[in-house]
Write a structure and sequence with these properties.
Length: 234
Amino acid sequence: MKKGKLIYEGKAKKVYETENPDLLIQEFKDDATAFDATKRGTIREKGVCNNKISAQLFKLLESKGIPTHLVELLSDREMLVKRLDIVPVEVTIRNIVAGGMAKLLGLDEGIELKVPVLEFHYKSDALHDPLINEYHIFALDLAQEKEIKAITQYSFEINGILQKFFDHVGLKLVDFKLEFGRHKDKILLGDEISPDTCRLWDKDTNKKLDKDRFRRDLGNIEEAYQEVAKRVLS
Ligand code: 5GP
């Protein structure tokens, strides 16, 4: 499948058209940004790690009945995906308190939650992806009720599948962000699942093996991405 016109360039990925109007090529970059792109950098080989990790996790989810946009892995940095009309609502699932939840509620990081917490965030860099609820979503017509029902059900199922998978490779799935989109009247999981979009802590040491190493200047960033790739792809 040949790359056509560049239709989108985001912080971590470029998206190209292909000769098939229903399919796009998603190319993963090494660029890293945090805090709404006020912090910028490069993480060597991050794009390769995230492309391969995401493809592996999408395949796992597909095998468990979760529809995703993945068609196939094309190269080290590229995957072929179905074109989505992205729902402008990001889903965050949390199993352990960290990041935004620790800040919002004044909690210590590391508290294990009794049940997973699902949050909706309005997808807007300019507004810093504000926390919203279902009333906002329906009042503003961001998604239909049946779409949010499917998104919610898929998100909790994904959490269960990924928690189990990461546990097997010695990682705690602290929290993660998902994006969904519409394709031919169906809701599919889109974007990526990687150490850019998940918090992953080593099961034995609680060492952070995700983008927080970049956000918080913890060092050994490249090694953390390589370590996750090694464990996920093993
Ligand atoms: P928090 O709300 O604590 O900042 O993020 C919760 C989880 O979702 C973390 O795993 C974080 O990496 C992911 N996440 C939330 N929003 C974004 C985003 O805009 N970009 C990326 N890469 N990850 C996000």
